[in-house]
Amino acid sequence: MKIAQIAPPWYPIPPAGYGGIELVVSLLTEGLLKRGHDVTLFASGDSSTEAELVSVFEFAPTREIGQVYPDLLHVLNAYERASEFDIIHDHSGMIGPALGSFCSTPVLHTLHGPATERAKYLYSRLKDKIYFNAISEYQRKCFGNLNFVATIYNAIDIHAYPFSPRKDNYLLFLGRMSPEKGAHLAVEVANRLKKKLVLVTKMAEEREKRYYKTQVEPLLSENIEILGEVDLKTKAELYMNAECTLFPIQWPEPFGLVMVESMATGTPVVALRNGSTPKVIVHKKTGFIVDSMEEMVKAVAKVEEIDPKMCRKHVEERFSAERMVGDYEKTYQRILGFTMMQDTDTYYFQHLC
Q: Is 2-155+320-352 in CATH node 3.90.660.10?
């Protein structure tokens, strides 16, 4: 198959630090190449891939994230070449699939974000024109009646996350410095337990800095260590050595790659029940799902009950890159089968008339 992968323009593929979608797109692109497909990746020029790389921007326009112009220019560049591909897989925001709805080439859009009212309304306008994939059953349920052809969970390169049954005496939080990620709750849990907490976080936007100043900084104590963005090797080592990873998510998380990365190293996750967390973690087997900060504190005290080998096995069975690539390959084939049948039906209808 000739496949176009449209990544978001904001970070290179794969990302040097923050960027969950970008990691998934990278794994999928390289995996499809290994399976013999002809893949073109539309991403920023500082990306690294074995596929044909097509770029509008020499460097990812990270400082302009969320602005319309760079996003529009990026996806327009891809859809102008639509006729060159058997199928287009769009991982970008709302502008990409909107343009794709006018395209004769089949378009699969993976929903990487939450089901906000605006997102649901826009995608409902496109539901008969493009195909959709959800990254969790929870997310799929939230979006309602779209033209879903699959639910394919995200994945990681398991080999990049070394396993260890031995753990050091610290807790780990990894995520953007935003209210949705709940860093302030992670700090409160660590303070109550008088445990060391390592905060690995991205804090670039004014909103993130404001949240840190007003809700996180006042809670800081000598047992809290704050790190900025780290590379993949450092991140994997932090996961591997942590006693557990805290995931006090404050919004309906559609997937949550942090949970999978942590469990891959054998480190259990203690997460608040929100969004997809009950579907990613096996309660009392690979971590704990809790409903309050008080329950989170109690759960952290019981993480030694979790077998690190079970955490690793769970990820190997459900969240490997090989599984994800295979699922997408089958989905592309299914979509192309639908398209061929529709073309055949149109042909017969025209001749019968």
A: no
